[in-house]
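Good day; I would like, with your permission, to put a structural problem before you. What I wish to show you is a protein chain and, alongside it, a tokenised description of its three-dimensional fold. Here, with my thanks, is the record as I have it:
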Amino acid sequence: MNKITRSAALAFCAAGLLLAGCGTDQPATEASTEPEGMTFQDSAAMSTDSARMGKPQGVEVGGARMTPDKDLVANAVNSKEHTTLVSAVQAAGLAETLKGPGPYTVFAPSNAAFNNLPYGAMAGLMRPESKEKLQGVLKYHVIPSRIMAADLRDGQQLTTLSGDKIKVSVKDGKVKINNANVTISDVVSSNGITHVIDQVLLPPAE
């Protein structure tokens, strides 16, 4: 998986998508992607154990039951609230990646989140000539590891498939990723975890 180039990110920013939120909000110092005092192996084991304890009957998202026996894409296609995301993943050629063994953690914007983008922004990204930019935006929503909500810590930074980082904020039991709220957490699939968010995450300009 290739990281989008800086020029692609700047072009995406210039296109108007990042009109209000192009800059990054990252803190000066990075927190570890692992909970404090834990090794990577401990964190991975905790995530795996948490996933195993997920409800076997699944979690309802967009009027459909997301079950642990299906992969991330197979679950997502059944959600009426994620049709835009599914179409974007298919247009970007990332469906096979997200059907692969992973594991992945996907922060999945709802249809309403995509509708809140500037007018025409999504249509522009869905054009064939914008495929690389679209891949960059979508990869910014995917972490190449399995992360349950209980694994997230305030101030944490997670490295995405695009190579950029997203910031985790936890306050009063509520989780935010950059400026997006997690509205449904811990949707377990066979190859990863999905957390539904209410905004599209925009890659930094630099």
